[in-house]
Design a protein that fits this description.
By secondary structure, this protein is α/β, with parallel strands linked by helices. Helix content is about 25%, strand content about 30%. It folds into 2 domains: about 270 residues, 3-Layer(aba) Sandwich (Aminopeptidase); about 130 residues, Aminopeptidase i, Domain 2, CATH 2.30.250.
């Protein structure tokens, strides 16, 4: 349960990808890791602890192995820092029918109905002009600021029978206050400026996310569950980070890569389909030829949360592949390569679980239903590395508030630590 409680603390510290990376960096530095910049000339050092950040939302950390990567390879774990949510537009506020609203865009595959009638707070990063230089500042406004309000049932009497349908453009503007004369952005910019210690007129840009003001917690009978926002996929970021911190030093160089933008396809400078991981591995290997030889000796665990069977909808699962909460890590397989798992890499992960005394489960999407995907196939194809897709089981994926098992975080961390330490 200790690992689950630490996961709760991690999620509560990480309302956005930027805060997730900042919290990961804080924890790494507490364990003796030092940051290198992308502009630095760095390379492999045996047992050195380093990390690098790109665009504030993606982080790669590593501990050098006892042997050079060209001779021993890499042990890689990948996850993603972003989650579906509502984000403020460049002109972030507007007046409508006497109300002041935030003007929002939808990021990723949001389960929209779950964002209604929730107390919403605001966090992200703000770009400030300081004597002609742009500085980036993290900001977090924890007070409940806004609310996407439902329509009263008296005005939509069929909603319980036909379902709540929300138009992304018309119905998602959270109410912030009552509108007044003047620029509707003024109150928001004043709050942001106060939070980062500047004046409103110096703000030049922002990346701001709404988030559930209710903190993550353990719950259910005997604290069997984790109730939290962003378990997909901060739970796997936490497992990878914790595993790197506790893994035994091995022959191989242990690497974790936490990417932004998975929920929108990964095709960005700091996404898994960008060059970030390739660039870091090139530095560590000492050149393109050495990196290719190192990759041939390497393996990657792509870690993204998995679909647990739902008690009211078991028919949506393949009956032979129905993961359950608190029953161990899930190996995810799709013959059309929506997941990168194959017979060899799944065997490796099963062997790791058996060696560690950890139960494991299998997930295969029903072939008559659309299957999601992960960073696994992207990273496998970009690097040419053997890859297995895994994740902990969960319910309410992409809801504003998700649900996982409280025993699963420790199990996944144990297997990842063994992998990063060179087992098998």
């Amino acid at each position: 349960m200790k690992t689950a409680r630490d996961l709760v603390d991690f999620v509560n510290a990480s309302p956005t990808p930027y805060h997730c990376v900042a919290e990961a960096a804080r924890r790494l530095e507490a364990q003796g890791f030092t940051r290198v910049q992308e502009t630095d000339a760095y390379g492999f050092e045996a047992e050195a602890r380093r990390y690098c950040v790109r665009g504030d939302g993606s982080l790669i950390a590593w501990r050098g192995g006892r042997r050079a990567p060209v001779d021993a390879g890499f042990r890689l774990v990948g996850a993603h820092t972003d989650s579906p949510n509502l984000r403020l537009k460049p002109r972030p506020a507007k007046s409508k029918e006497g109300y002041l609203l935030y003007d929002v865009d939808v990021y990723g595959g949001v389960l929209l109905a779950t964002w209604t009638d929730r107390d919403l707070a605001l966090a992200g990063r703000v770009m400030v002009d300081v004597d002609g230089r742009l500085e980036r500042h993290l900001v977090r406004l924890d007070a409940p600021l806004a609310r996407v309000t439902n329509l009263a049932i008296h005005m939509d009497r069929e909603v319980n029978d036909k379902g709540l349908v929300l138009n992304k453009h018309q119905h998602l503007g959270p109410i912030v206050g009552l509108s007044a004369d003047g620029d509707p952005r003024a109150a928001l910019y004043a709050r942001l400026a106060e939070a980062v210690g500047t004046s409103p007129e110096r703000i030049r840009g922002h990346d701001l996310c709404l988030f559930d003001a209710q903190p993550a917690t353990l719950g259910g009978q005997d604290d069997a569950f984790v109730f939290a926002a962003r378990l997909d996929n901060q739970a796997m970021c936490h497992a990878a980070l914790t595993a790197l911190q506790v893994a035994q030093a091995g022959e191989q160089t242990a690497v974790i890569a936490l990417f932004d933008h998975e929920e929108v396809g990964s095709g960005t400078a700091r996404g898994a389909d960008g060059t970030f991981l390739e660039d870091v591995l090139l530095h560590l290997a000492g050149g393109a030829e050495a990196r290719s030889r190192a990759i041939a000796r390497s393996a990657l665990i792509s870690a993204d949360m998995a679909h647990a069977v739902h008690p009211h909808h078991p028919d949506l699962h393949d009956r032979e592949h129905m993961p359950r909460l608190n029953a161990g890590p899930v190996i995810k397989t799709n013959e059309n390569q929506r997941y990168a798992t194959d017979g060899e890499t799944s065997a490796l992960f099963r062997a790791l679980c058996l060696d560690a005394g950890v139960g494991f489960q299998e997930f295969v999407n029903r072939p008559d239903l659309a299957c999601g995907t992960t960073i696994g196939p992207i990273s496998a194809s970009r690097l040419g590395v053997r890859t297995v897709d895994v994740g902990n089981p969960m319910l309410s994926m992409h809801s504003i508030r998700e649900m996982g098992g409280s025993r699963d975080p420790a199990a996944m961390t144990t297997v990842m630590a063994a992998f990063l330490g060179g087992a098998r």
